[in-house]
Amino acid sequence: MTAGHTAIVTGANHGIGAATARALARRGCAVLCTFLRVDDEAEPGTPQAYRDHRARDAAAVVTAIREGGGQALAVEADLSDPATPATLFDAAEEQLGPVDILVNNATGWLADTFAAAGTDRLGRSLQPVTHATWARLFAVDAMGAALMIGEFARRHIERGAGWGRIIGLTSGGELGFPEEVSYGAAKAAQVNYTMSAALELAPFGVTANMVHPPVTDTGWVTDAVRQHVAESATLIHVATPDEVAEVIAYLASDAAALITANVITLR
């Protein structure tokens, strides 16, 4: 369903991003996998496996795609740098083809709070809201995503293309995101950018949607998290990255041509 297309998937070295890159490649899409290695400090509330995932590159993802007969390229890139989008699109165009699918998955995630608390309900370390926490989240999840959409749109319109897909990942809710305050706010900004893109780019054949995954086991899910989900009235399921990636891949297909300007909440 996506054969002959080229995608950029940000944050594709692990988790939902890696699963999405593989899912698109299985459908015949060439994929540029961006990543930024992050060295997290050890803490009791986060498994070492998750820290290991965030610290690795995307070589294994690209190798798996190529061994399956697909096309893929890995580029390490810092989305907080405004020059990064042009660099990524140049690399994709030069080695894979014009980009017509953009998946804004990367995040500068950290947990911050307005309350005087050192850990959250799951035992993870909390920071107070500061300019540094705000800047880290908004630089990637809001500005980075917006500039990637802007670069996508400019090139799409300049070449007279008539088909395109933009998909972002969000979290939090209408009442914010307690204990992940700046993360939730930055994601809300990305939702707004993506909805604007859906309306402004519709005449050019582009759809734009956001996916709100359930709790997804990308390596950070502990027994405490599973218990929290089990006891919740609204958190129904702990998903796998592959389950979320299948929804993203569907939104990137021809079959999803009438789905745009939506926040799709997965349960």
How would you describe this protein?
This protein is of the alpha/beta class. It is 41% helix and 15% strand. It has a 7-stranded parallel beta sheet, with helices on both faces. Strand 7, helix 6 (181-201) and strand 8 (206-212) form a beta-alpha-beta unit. Helix 1 (15-26) packs parallel to helix 3 (59-67), helix 1 (15-26) packs across helix 8 (241-251) and helix 5 runs parallel beside helix 6 (181-201).
Assembly state: single chain
Strand content: 5-15%
**Which radius of gyration do the C-alpha atoms yield?**
18 Å
Total count of helical runs of at least 4 residues: 8
Task: Please name the defining characteristics of this protein.
single chain, 267 residues, alpha/beta, seven-stranded parallel beta sheet, two-stranded parallel ribbon, globular
